[in-house]
Amino acid sequence: MKKMLMIVIVLTLILAACGQNIEEKEEDEKSTVEIIEEPVEPIIDYYYELITSLENGDMIEIDLLMKEFIPNLSKDESDDVIAKYISILKDNLRSMIEEYYSEENFSIHGEINEKREFELVGNDKYKLVDLIEEEKFNSLIKRTFENGYGLMCGEGAYYPVVDYVVLYEQYSEYVTESMEMYLRLMSENLINPTLMEEYLNVSPLELANRAIEHEFFLKKDPGFIYKEDIRIGLMVALYKLSGPNIFDGMLNEDFTFTDELKEAYDYLLTMKDYPVTHTTIQGVVDFSISKDGVLGSLEDMDDMYDNAFKLHEEASEMIDELYMK
After folding, report:
1. What pLDDT, in 10s, does the model give residues 244-254?
2. pTM of the predicted protein model
């Protein structure tokens, strides 16, 4: 019995020792495991980074950051960044224009005329940089484009403009509906201007559509930050619609409405939800009726122009009353 008891005690001590060795081994193994932590990506405040860079005013850096960061912003934040960017471009536009009309650079216009075979807004504009050999002109044009401007032509001379075409192409999917429409309308007027110098550059029906689109915008979002640009677009369209003339091809030789203009007016007279445009066109039609359809003659256009001026002034007042307060 004593022998059996001794065996049990020995076995118990052996098992206890084995258990302790196993636990110590497991602890040793745990202590040798290397803990690898995943690197934590820094949280970038894209909006703050862009707003800060806009305040610093380095336009090339701003452009690069906008391309990288705007896809990560909310649409409202993207609107805010692009609105501030446009504001900077507008503020700097006069000084940029002056460079093209300085005595030192004035012959740049002839250089551009010789080389230009494409639009100088949008991404195609950079082709011009490779074609201008004069170093100082090349440098000026490159800097103009890199700083967010394009070039437009008036009476054979070129002047910088805010390049809305690039902004629309790059960012229209990241902004709100209002900003997208604003960039589109401004882009369309750069690619296919309503006026070329003082002459109508689009068809009467296209002119009618532009009037409606611009008034639609003002009705939809009268608080938009750049609504004055939209107002100007509407006033330009109404300027031609209220004063059709033979030099724009809107009147026949006998000073009656062309078929195209009649079609445009008939369309606009149905658009009663757009009171400025509708009232203006109604005024033109009423004047035409009072003249038995003949608005004037080459010898006498005074009444026609007086009526156009009156309608345009009334349209301006109505826009301010309805949309600009």
Report:
1. 999 999 999 99
2. 0.85
Query: Around Cβ 191, how many Cβ atoms within 10 Å?
Result: 12
* Residue 9 CA neighbour count, 13 Å, CB half: 6
The total of other beta-carbon atoms located within 10 Å of residue 218's CB is 20
Please write the tens of the pLDDT for every residue from 113-168.
Answer: 999 889 999 999 999 999 999 999 999 999 999 999 999 998 889 999 999 999 99
* C-alpha–C-alpha distance, residues 227 and 222, integer Å: 7
Q: Which two tokens stand for residue 13?
A: 């001590």
Residue 112 and residue 119 in contact, taking contact as beta carbons nearer than 8 Å: no
* Inter-residue contact 161 to 149 (CB < 8 Å): yes
Residue 187 host element (H or E): helix 177-191
Interhelix angle 164-171/59-69, rounded to 10 degrees, is: 30
CA-nearest of 254, 257, 227, 222 to 241 is: 257
Q: Minimum mean pLDDT among 12-21, 45-54, 192-201, 264-273: which range? A: 12-21
Block residue for tokens 């894209």? 46
